[in-house]
Amino acid sequence: MRQVRLGQTGLSVSAICLGTMTWGSQNSEAEGHAQMDRARAQGVNFWDTAEMYPVNPVRAETVGRTEEIIGTWLAARGGRDELVLATKVTGEGQDAVRGGAPLTGAVMRAAVEDSLRRLQTDYIDLYQLHWPNRAAYHFRDIWHFDPRGGDKLSIEAHMFEILQVSADLIAEGKIRHIALSNESVWGAARWLALAEKHGLPRMMTVQNEYSLLCRQFDSDWAELSALEDMPLLAFSPLATGLLTGKYAGDVIPEGSRRALNPTLSGRVTPQVFPAVAAYLGIAARHGLNPAQMAIAFCMTRPHPCIPIIGATNLEQLELALGAADLVLDAEVLAEIEAAHRAHPMPY
């Protein structure tokens, strides 16, 4: 698989990143190992996980299990230096992790140590803040987002603390780079400004939701991403499977993610199925697989973008990885833009 720059990290990674969040819930350890074997054989060297995984649902008794599955694979297979491994520390409000406590410097240090132990590695390449402590507009919260609850001085004091601890962890060799997830443009700009002002590590990437159905990144965030060389790691490029067509007609296949989470965390709305139908129609007219078209679209953007793909079986994984070689022509892209104008924000 072709390689791309990971922003200013100096690292070269596969054009597609392997997601892992179902390993330990929908997928067994053996299935997770099989996916890692297949991904590495296909040239994927960039993997993303999180301390709170698996999901569907997040439970206190399974927190960290996905990292453990990666760790047993690394212990058995080796080759850690050939991989770029990203994980995340949980933010405030997830009761299954530390009782929902906010992220602090001390929490971050302890979480790094726990992730290193579970992953059976000496270092983490990219350590991401899963979401900010303050109110944010991700996870469908854009419909009732209120930014007035935050105090700028307190927010920046927290950011400074996290950057200082990050500098220490980098100096100790426990993490190589730090990064953001589910962050706003204002937040990213403040992180960058504080790092530059105080000579502290900069945030290297941002992991936000992005797909044909969710394109909030395309305006202010796209500008920051391009001009500050902060790549988007696009999670849910298939919109939790909606863009594969398997839920078309509002069906719920047995064993699917929607069988566990009927609303797909708020993505199933009256507007979403007409939007999905528009994109399925484009793929059909041009002889494209709709899932591959959706993933390939992410790699056409004017800002750096690496889609994170997740699968629950090897067939899905092979299909998704095939998108790396797909080039969408001008006609397809024009039809996608027309569909986006007709269905700009379906959830």
Automatic annotation (TrEMBL):
Signal peptide: none
Coiled coil ranges: none
Name of the protein: NADP-dependent oxidoreductase
Classification via InterPro entries: AKR_Detox_Biosynth, NAD(P)_OxRdtase_dom_sf, NADP_OxRdtase_dom
NADP-dependent oxidoreductase domain segment(s): 15-339
One MF term in the entry's GO annotations: oxidoreductase activity
Tagged with keyword GTP-binding: no
Entry keyword annotation includes ATP-binding: no
Keyword field: Oxidoreductase
Organism, as annotated: Cypionkella aquatica
